[in-house]
Amino acid sequence: xxxxxxxxxxxxxxxxQGRVVVMTGATGGIGRHVVRDLLxxxxxxxxxxxxxxxxxxxxxxxHNEFPAAEIETITMDLNQIxxxxxxxxxxxxxxxxxxxxxxGVYNIPVVKSQLGxxxxxxxNFISQxxxxxxxxxxxxxxxxxxxxxxxxxxxxxxxxxxxxxxxxRAKKASKIYGNSKRFLTLALSEFFKDRDxxxxxxxxxxxxxxxxxxxxxxxxxxxxxKILFPKPEVAALNIVRGVFAEVACDEWIGPKVAKVWGxxxxxxxxxxxxxxxxxxxxxxxxICKVIEKSAMF
Length: 297
What we know:
The chain is α/β, with parallel strands linked by helices and 297 residues long. It has one domain (2-293): NAD(P)-binding Rossmann-like Domain (Rossmann fold), CATH 3.40.50. The protein is 47% helix and 15% strand. The chain has ten helices and eight strands. It has helices at residues 2-12, 29-40, 52-65, 81-91, 119-142, 173-192, 211-214, 219-228, 232-244, 274-293; strands spanning 20-24, 44-49, 71-75, 98-101, 145-149, 199-203, 251-257, 261-268. Strands 3-2-1-4-5-6-7-8 form an eight-stranded mixed β-sheet, sandwiched between helices. Helix 2 packs across helix 9 (232-244), helix 5 runs parallel beside helix 6 and helix 6 (173-192) packs across helix 10 (274-293). The N and C termini lie far apart (45 Å). The mean pLDDT is 93.
């Protein structure tokens, strides 16, 4: 497997020496493989994660595997806007070539955040969109790129103005998660569609067994997924491809065959009306304005 991945990297990427990648969810299942791939390409990695112990443990592993690697860690809790703002303060004057929005939570207890939305919506959508907006000046200096990790569960969501974060669907984890990914995907697509100073690539990893997906499955289902679907290190290549590929804002990169198997390829985003896209974009911008004006954050 390692040989195949090394060959793929050789054929589809270039050296990233001197380039800086900031990544949310860097210690997660797929995130770990993305980080390793980018270190193989000699990028400097700034890993963002809420768990300091996980960051430290993973960072030590990486230093053992890649002794010459440039790795930095920052503790950031996406459920706390103050934590996001503290991270922005550390990064805003730094070089950033790529911002990878990889973090995602799925089957966790649903509670309300300070903004009044459920924590899954907050972590998967609001805070990562806000982080992008705040770090935009740093990305503009390098004519950088945002790589946003969406999901096939995007199709489980649809704008409901009476329940935008799907809090009334508290027992339907897949819908709550998918809706949050839909909002992030469409809000970013709208934000970047007319920009040429910073670029966007949307990606999805298909279906793979990670701690995120394993949390909701029985042992039998998990074993079936492990046998039938690509391994996380293969799914991660869709995200790595996003670092290098130039695609339109109404497209995403994912597995070629049935959006599950095969090499990363470009496809059109699933259908969303212009009205839904505009309303989601307006909501994202309005939430950012509330955060920026509020002294509580």
